[in-house]
Amino acid sequence: MLALIGVLIAAYAITRQIRHLDDLVQEVALGHQIEDLANALGRDADGMPTLDLPPRLLRLYEEEHNGSVFVIRNQTGQVLFDDGDNALKILEPGFTFPSFFHYFQAVDMSPEEARGLDPQRFGMTERVNTDIGEVFITVAQHRVADDFLSRAVAIELVDDAILVGGPLLILFILAGFGVVSYSTRGLSFLSEKARDIGPQTIRTRLPVHAAPTEVMPLAHAFNEAMDRVAEGYDNQQRFTIDAAHQLKTPLAVLRARLETIAPFAGRDLLEVDLSHMETLIQQLLTSARISVVNISPDETITLNALAQEVVVALAPIAIEQGNTLELERPDVPVVVMGESHLAMEAIRNLVNNAINHTADGTTVTVRVSEPHKLQVLDRGPGVPDSEKKHIFMPFSQGRKPTRNGTGMGLAIVSQIMQVHFGKVTVEDRDGGGAVFTLHFSPPLVRQAEE
User: Fold this and answer.
1) pLDDT tens track for 20-63
2) Nearest by Cα to 121 from 91, 150, 143
3) Residue pair 288/241 in contact by the 8 Å Cβ criterion
4) How confident is the model at residue 292 (pLDDT cuts 50, 70, 90)?
């Protein structure tokens, strides 16, 4: 923008200069005539003033088409030499006694009076010291002849400006982009670092030393703001863990007392509610612990083995509910980055969720496949599109909540996948049901090899 503004200003200045170029050319031409006339003045043997015009000036004043005329006066205004009677008619009204020179437009005349020439002339009177003393020389000529010269000079000037200024403008703009890119390269680096900050990297701070000088105060302020956010995050996590621990004790006491008292009406429902509360408290503790876990990128697990362990453990529950549980896995191990206990918790929650929602007499399938993913397929009611964005939020149980559900299972799965630098998704299954997919990250060693 600055370069463009500069070019526009330069173009405006050149345009104004071109508009005055004609006057400048005329003034220079007249000045040379006065200088030549002054050099042609002298005295004869008797001391009388003489004017010995060189051939160039003789031809100039003899040619009628250019309209060149002159008058030379002494200090009293007496005419010493002139170009004829026509010169006096043209120049007499415009004569003054200037301190140095006088620049004027000659008087209008009819074509007859001007011998058929253009009556508009461009004139100048100048006080000059010559060999015969100080005189006033007045000259004038038509503008037409020199107009062509000024236009030619103007066109040449514009052409040169385009040839030279165009590449310079492009070079200046490219250099401007280069300078801006070079000076803000640290800002791009800071943006990448800020983009990587999340719940699992909440204690990461921007490298202030890499920031441009103008951005350093902002980087410091950002780091200080992140310190306050991390402190509040830690306080919230501590509160959740402490609250869950505090709730476990009265629930354990309530469980012990319930088991020691005599049977009574509604005891079964009370035990179910108590189990529900114990599960919820345990899941809250699990969620709080997951949020502070940092998985090392070089830590790996094998999805085949974890899936088999979960299927073996939960198969009796599926059979008890009239369903079956099957495992599909490739012959080669599917190795991913992760922590075994957390990954198994995520798989177990998905399989439990599928067993609870699949239709009676159907099969829940656990499928391990490349690249680095595990799927759980059921024949339940599926997940409506309107709920797919919210089903992984805490305490969301979908459109058909179960009595023993807490709404934390899928939220914990999503949280576990986040600390694994992966994600969990849900899609509709052909023929009815849902497909939950755990997308893991490849091992760091494999990434380096690739």
Assistant:
1) 666 677 778 888 889 999 999 999 988 899 999 888 888 888 77
2) 143
3) yes
4) low
**Residue whose tokens read 């990461």:** 204
Per-residue pLDDT band for 117 (boundaries 50, 70, 90) equals: very low
φ/ψ of 365, rounded to 5, equals: -110, 130
Rounded CA-CA distance 264/396 in Å is 33
pTM of the model: 0.49
pLDDT, one tens digit per residue, over 244-274 is 677 777 878 888 888 888 777 877 888 878 8
Angle between helices 55-62 and 21-40 (to 10 degrees): 120
> Can you tell me which residue has the tokens 């701070």?
205
Token couple for 80: 């010493």
Find the range with the poorest average confidence among 101-115, 128-142, 220-234.
Answer: 101-115
- In the 3-class helix/strand/coil scheme, how is the chain assigned residue by residue? CHHHHHHHHHHHHHHHHHHCHHHHHHHHHHHHHHHHHHHHEEECCCCCEEECCCHHHHHHHHCCCCCCEEEEECCCCCEEEECCHHHHHHHHHHCCCCCCEEEEECCCCCCCCCCCCCCCEEEEEEEEEECCEEEEEEEEEECHHHHHHHHHHHHHHHHHHHHHHHHHHHHHHHHHHHHHHHHCHHHHHHHHHHHCCCHHHCCCCCCHHHCCHHHHHHHHHHHHHHHHHHHHHHHHHHHHHHHHHHHHHHHHHHHHHHHHCCCCCCHHHHHHHHHHHHHHHHHHHHHHHHCCCCCCCCCEEEHHHHHHHHHHHHHHHHHHCCCEEEEECCCCCCEEECCHHHHHHHHHHHHHHHHHHCCCCCEEEEEEECCCEEEEECCCCCCCHHHCCCCCCCCCCCCCCCCCCCCCHHHHHHHHHHHCCCEEEEEECCCCCEEEEEECCCCHHHHHHC
Number of other residues whose CB lies within 10 A of the CB of residue 331: 5
* Rounded distance between C-alpha atoms, residue 60 and residue 246, angstroms: 116
| CB neighbours of residue 416 within 10 Å | 27
∠ CA(91), CA(97), CA(101), 5° rounding? 85
